[in-house]
Protein: EAL domain-containing protein
Organism: Luteimonas endophytica
Amino acid sequence: AKRNGRNGFELFRPEMNQRNEQRLRLRAELRKALDHDALELAYQPQLAIASDRVVGFEALARWNHPELGPISPAEFIPVAEESGLILPLGRWVIRAACRQMAQWQAQGLAGFRVAVNVSARQLRDAQLPEFIDATLVAHRLAPERLELEITESLLLDNAETHIALLRRLRARGIRLSIDDFGTGFSSMAYLPRLPLDQLKIDGSFVRAIPGDGEAITTAIIAMAHHLRLEVVAEGVEDAVQFEYLRRAGCDVMQGYLLSRPLAPEQATAFLHRHVAG
Ligand code: C2E
Ligand code: CA
Ligand code: CA
Ligand code: CA
């Protein structure tokens, strides 16, 4: 932008290009990473509070780029979503999580579930239920072992189509969870109509315990139980938060207090300590 009459435009342009270039580079690198099977999953344990048992893991995508270093999913998931790469990435995540569960099952480590995060775009993929079926069958896994975490905000648009697909998934026995609950509460009216198993209280509310987070978490727990849904608190970092949630009747906890997300080998060791022991 050399000879441009509009001043602001000139100043604005180079920055825009830089950001665009960065996104395009990341997109190209992500495509390569998917082709080369270079992504990984980290597994964060979830504990049933009343029984003190490990009931599951959340699988979280990890990308350690050979030159750029570790790139956060908060950075690469949006890039995947805007480029369409979220479809192959989402399928890779489901396949990798099932492969891991099958490995654990072969070692006698079963009786818990693995949750994967699902993007809006994936719910518009009419082939998703068949893909999941085939993956579960190939790994000899019961559908109840797999849980899909869907963010609340994505249910707002196109709700009827989404609900239809969710019904098809749930009819197969796959568990459904609403992620980041409480951060987009305009969809609350849909809640009784959704085929759900679980609500996850967003970590921002848990972080506000003690304090403003108390009223909100207590209200979410009461509402979830009225709807016969299990409640998970995420982002639990300290004993004060844990104790508050326990007394409030929260079912499951997840967070650094119990464990950080673990590499597969670490997660296996964690299971040997907590499940098989
Ligand atoms: P999320 O689904 O809400 O996942 C929880 C995030 O909180 C994770 O960040 C996790 O590492 C972090 N976390 C867990 N315990 C604690 C804690 O005690 N304190 C704090 N401060 N943080 C905690 P992560 O792994 O960086 O993932 C960020 C987001 O990226 C996820 O948020 C999810 O929305 C998205 N994401 C990650 N993996 C996938 C994936 O495979 N597919 C899709 N579609 N999205 C993914
Ligand atoms: Ca999640
Ligand atoms: Ca969440
Ligand atoms: Ca989140």
Summary: Residues 1-5 have pLDDT under 50 and may be disordered.
